[in-house]
Amino acid sequence: MTKRSMLAVALMASVLAVGSASAADQTYVAARGGIFLPNGRDGGDFKGFKYFDTGYSFDVAAGYRPVPYAAVEVGTGLYTASGKITQPGFSIDRTAYGVPITLTAKGIIEFDKLILSGGGGIGLYQGFIDNKISFPSTPVDESNHGTAVGYQAVFDADFKLNEKWAVGANFKWFSARPEIELTTVSQDGSRLVRNSKDKWEIGGTTVNIGVKYSF
C-alpha cells in the first residue's frame, strides 16, 4: 500500500471515528402526541375494543445511545378511546384509558439529516374503563381497572433540525391483557351480566408526532 493510500485510509477512519463518537454515549428526551387506533378485538357480550372509536395518545420518553447503532428507551404516557353501543332496549357508553410504563430496545440507522429506528420491548400496562349502561329499570354507572405485562413494537423516523433538536413521527403497536371486572349485557340483549371478569385486550396502535432533544 502506498503512503498516499495509507493516508486516505487513515483519514477516512478518523472521520468515521469522530462521527461514531458524536452519536455514541448520548442521552435524549422526547415528547409526542397523536392518535390511538384500538385493536378491534371482540371479547363477546359487547366487550372488547371492537366497539371503540379512534382516540388520542400522548407519551414522553428518555433514551440512552451507548453506541451509534442502538438505544435503550424508557417511556410512559396516556392513550384513550371511547365507544357507544346502541341496541333496541339498551345502550352502552364506555371510555377506556391506558397508562403504560415501557422499556424498549432500538436499532438505529442515522443519515445526515434523518434518523430511522425500530425495535421492541415490554411494559407494564394499566387499563381503566368507565362503563355506563342504560338498561330498563337497571342503569349501571361504574369504573374499574386492571394491570398486566404487555409488549410493544416501535418504529421512529426523526428529521434533525440541528445537533440538539429533531422532529419526527413515532409508530407503536402494543398488546396487553389485564383482567377487568365490569357489568355488560348478554349477546342477545336480554339481561345484564354482572361482575364479569375478563381479560381485556387493551392494545392497538399509536401514531404520534413530536420533538426530541439530545444532550
TrEMBL record:
SUPFAM superfamilies: OMPA-like (SSF56925). Keywords: Signal. Residues 1-23 form the signal peptide. The keyword Iron-sulfur does not apply. Pfam families: OMP_b-brl. Residues 9-215 form the Outer membrane protein beta-barrel domain. This is Outer membrane beta-barrel protein. It comes from Geoanaerobacter pelophilus.
